[in-house]
Write a structure and sequence with these properties.
The chain is of the alpha+beta class. The chain has 8 helices and 20 strands. It folds into 3 domains: 5-97, wza like domain (wza like fold, 2-Layer Sandwich), CATH 3.30.1950.10; 102-179, Roll (Outer membrane lipoprotein wza fold like), CATH 3.10.560.10; 184-291, Roll (Outer membrane lipoprotein wza fold like), CATH 3.10.560.10.
């Protein structure tokens, strides 16, 4: 099993030797390996008790639950000095076995659940265990470290494969990976590909013209000067009249869309009567097809 080892030497500043990117916390039931340079009698492999402590030769119980291996090494080091057992101990703490041997993958993946892992693995590997992202997944993923729920790690799964590999982070046993649902905007009416469009690009953002392009553009019979943008807030949907022609020509500024926005492009008058109001447009959302970005 791959080990994560942190060594603290009294001859060097602790901050220099600590690995600042490490946030894994030791928990009850974990088995650790404590070594002290030139003191083989202190070589021990205790298991963390339910009280979060480990019994160590010469110093008694040391509370290490909730600490990183680096912090645990510091705690043992300080305890050895306080007990007058050693004056300048060089301590190494290694996590040899995690009590929790699974990682939970939740949210918008093809097969959410708990998957066994015996050591740290790249987040891309863990997502693969869950079948990868589904069609409506947001690419901004949260990783909750075991024992540290207040400081989740954010990972953006870039559409660029090289970037995704280069920026990948490690997931440890006991962690939880949460893949949220991406925002969806709807382009309905007289367009070539009406339906919902998932905002699953790298920025999770979409403008009106980008959404219109994903919908295949407007049809010939569309009344571009009478388009409507419906946006929902706490009080309900609010309607804004738009001229798509003016926006496409650059005479009016493109609009940043928000999740849940509905862009409606009307047909000719005769076909538009049945859905001319906001209520009619909103009622058609339930039957709209949903398309992910290419």
């Amino acid at each position: 099993m791959k080990k994560v080892i942190f060594v603290f030497l009294m001859s060097l500043p602790l901050a220099v030797l600590a690995q600042s990117g490490e946030s894994l916390r030791i928990g009850a039931g974990d088995q650790i390996h404590v070594t002290v340079v030139d003191s083989p009698e202190l070589d021990q492999r205790p298991r963390v008790t339910d009280a979060g402590e480990v019994p160590l030769i010469g110093v008694g119980a040391v509370k290490i639950a909730g600490l990183t291996p680096a912090e645990a090494a510091t705690a043992v080091h300080d305890k050895l000095i306080a007990a007058h057992y050693l004056n300048h101990p060089e301590v190494t703490v290694t996590v040899e076995q995690y009590a929790t041997q699974t990682v939970s993958v939740l949210g918008q993946v093809r097969a959410s659940g708990a998957y066994p892992i015996g050591t740290a693995r790249p987040v891309l590997d863990v997502l693969a265990l869950a079948g990868g992202l589904n069609e409506v997944a947001d690419r901004n993923i949260l990783i909750e470290r075991r024992g540290d729920p207040d400081h989740p790690i954010r990972y953006n799964l870039a559409n660029d494969g090289a970037v995704a590999l280069r920026t990948s982070v490690l997931v440890y046993p006991g962690d939880t990976v949460m893949v949220p649902k991406a925002g969806i905007v709807y382009v309905l009416g007289d367009v070539n590909r009406p339906g919902g469009i998932v905002m699953d690009n790298n920025s999770s953002e979409l403008t009106l013209l980008q959404a219109l392009a994903r919908a295949g553009g407007v049809a010939r019979t569309a009344k571009q000067g009478h388009a409507k943008l419906l946006r929902k807030d706490a009080t309900g949907y609010h309607e804004t009249q738009l001229s798509l022609g003016e926006i496409q020509k650059g005479k009016q500024q493109d609009i940043a869309l928000a999740p849940g926005d509905v862009l409606y492009v009307p047909f000719s008058y005769a076909k538009n009567v049945a859905v001319s109001g906001s209520a009619g447009i909103i009622s058609s959302l339930s039957s709209a097809a949903v398309y992910s970005m290419p």
